Amino acid sequence: MAGYAAEAGAAPSAERGAAFFAATQAGGKPDTPSCSTCHTANPRAEGRTRAGKAIEPMAASVSPTRYTDFKFVEKWFGRNCDSVLGRACTPGEKADFIAYMASL
Questions:
Q1: pLDDT in tens, 54-65
Q2: What domains appear along the chain, each with residue ranges and CATH number?
Q3: Per the confidence metrics, is the pTM higher than 0.90?
């Protein structure tokens, strides 16, 4: 998270991360308009892919190693940001998102 925050030039905000997670986006795929489409409105709960596969909870309190592998995190930000937003997430969005998940 520190690297994303440094790149963004701003401190991460769990509040902005929560709003980002819950927001309905217009730029991505129609069947994935928000993060919570697959990850549910409760990041502590297990989510489901569009194909029905289980997704580990997003909250760091439930999945403490989820954000420890930078390559893994970048892979999923790349895939999911494109699907939901239709673009790459900014470093600030990534830092805020992780701050929110770390706060849960």
A1: 999 999 999 999
A2: 2-103 (1.10.760.10)
A3: yes
